[in-house]
Amino acid sequence: MTIKRGTGELDPGAARTPAEFVALLRRLKERSGLTYRQLEQKAAERGDVLARSTVADVLRREALPRAELVTALVRACGAEGDASLWLAARERLASASDSEREGAASVGPAGSDGSEGPDGFEGAEGSAGPAGSTGPAEATGAAHAAESMTSAGSPDARKPSGRHTDDAGSRTRTASLAAVASLSTVALLVIGALVLFPEDGNPPATGDTGDRGPTVTAGRSGASEAAGAWQTPEAATSPDAGPARPGPAPGLSRIRPVRASGLCLTDGQVRAESGESKVVAVQRPCGEAVPPETHLLKADDGTYRIQWDHPVEDTGCLTVLDDGAFRNMLEPWNNCAAPGRSQLFRIERAEGGDGWRLRPEQRDGMCVGIRGDADELGAVAVVEPCANTRASSAVSSRQVFLIGPG
């Protein structure tokens, strides 16, 4: 996928899959040195429409972009002479996808016939099906970088889901055998619901909260159902909120490394040497960090969830990864009620300043820090041992963040 011609130009004809094609588009954008705002301006100067939010989503995913978006992006990146090559490669991949779909016996969601879906993508991967259907856009979980990774850092990141989802999200509709089997499943579900839930619709009390995290306070209007019981500024100041606990105010916020206050914690893609990639928390210029919006959700025991809201990717809560090549990184999961304490953080005041430390609740003596140089774009946020007071300022400051609205 990274094959180049003798002239040093990227070769879109070398792309074998839509994912490889988009990866080459990301490289084209990176090589141009232009920000998303600048790309939007360049396109407008040429009479093209290329909204920066759209191109950011195009480069996050691994679905095939629409032809007009490919043309506008290639032209804005200064490769107008190669636009026909990019379009030819795109059409080849689109035709291959259409051929594969022709043999499918099942009927997928709206747009899965190869027609162009919303948000600049081919319908098969970029569109959402009708309500109640389970489409590929819900399905694809983030692929599975430590020191050996290449960090893209830009928001070239998300796959069609962009975040961790359940395997159930990837199931497609099958033929009549599956339909017959589903009737039995429905019967079992009805019986299970009668057993598990009393007439008031609430689950029976067991007295065992297990590993589900702390009891939380007042609801958050507009948040996901999973995170809806977490505190917002209105809840924190209500008469029933109880005494205030130390920590930053819940609600819309920015998290900025104290040693590079012009950068913000947001989403970015990292890639391992094996080719695996994942969307995790990285630092990027604050002007390019939204979407997603960052919200702090605070429980009544003082712990926080860090929630990202994205117009396309929906809601995700930062989750500490425990294993694999991406161990200790923070990945946004759509499930904001994951079991255990991997999504819970203590936010404590750092010594001698206005900064804060992010301390994962599930790991004692650990803090969130930025791996890399202070001004390194795309440097990854990782969980690492907290620096003690005797550590150098360079080491300790990478674990301190400015947190607040605006």
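The above is record 1. Record 2 follows with the same two-line structure.
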Amino acid sequence: MARKGKEVLNALDAAKTQMYHFTAIVIAGMGFFTDAYDLFSISLVTKLLGRIYYHVDGSKKPGTLPPNVAAAVNGVAFCGTLAGQLFFGWLGDKLGRKKVYGITLMVMVLCSLGSGLSFGHSSNGAMATLCFFRFWLGFGIGGDYPLSATIMSEYANKKTRGAFIAAVFAMQGFGILAGGIVSLIVSTAFDHAFDAPTYEVDPVGSTVPQADYVWRIVLMFGAIPALLTYYWRMKMPETARYTALVARNTKQAAADMSKVLQVDLIAEEDPQSNPSSSNPNSFGLFSKEFARRHGLHLVGTTTTWFLLDIAYYSSNLFQKDIYSAIGWIPAAETMNAIHEVYTVSRAQTLIALCGTVPGYWFTVALIDYLHTANGLYLHDRLHVRARDTV
């Protein structure tokens, strides 16, 4: 890299913690907040969907989603997430983080609204429409998820990079908590406004027509934080590491970082900064050189992350079933449809408030002292112990 380019990146690495760091945490973290809300809010309303769309006359228990439908509704967003990560990750390297950031946000806004407006002539038709929008919602989340972490890592200094990235991830906890709180507020309001008997007393009357609005409002609310963040994301300059290393425009990188660091960085044009010039030190993702330098780190990190996410996402998606199995919430037939949403939301809110959120910020506080590998190991062990206990 050119000497002037190194000067810009060294200034970033050595920069003291400033207000722009915290601004970047909030802006990038709002992506994770919205991601978690959108991904996990569906688990709060799936029991309600079963009551509304799959009620069976004469059954002693409320309607539930058929296994194949339940699997699709809960899991289709993750199929979109996988595709979105691959596509937007590639696009982010081609066009820049800032441009792709805005695209992913708008996809999330539109598909959150579309999820709440799902329709169909039959129960399966309505669920198919919901799955369609949930897939593309996941597609947008898949792009937002890695880009948020990448932007924070490229803005952070060396000293507190681990804590800053962990803080962005910690916004997931607030997203899960917000999902529970929004669902609590909506279900409480509708439960008081539209009184209904329990399923045991009146199977049909226990699900009032207005219950159909509850799940739609909860899902559509995910568009609000994404929309509020869009303006501030578009005001953020492109990260200097992308501008200098990928776009090879050290002069622009210096100008952008001079604004946020509030110092004078002057980078003159250099022949190596020309995007068309070849860089002998660059190598592709699937090259032998990349495998030699980073292959082991990549495999180790992705494998650990994959195994962790199996437990993390499955437990969050199916918490409602765990609550029922351990008797933490009453039997479904002893409640009306909207009150069941309230009890599930209350349980999730308590778990998030007492466990998820403190756990994230415990990591933020200690990660730069434990180091990343030790922190990840401790997190994995605690997660495994918790699953074993359940």
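Confidence is low (pLDDT under 50) at residues 381-390.
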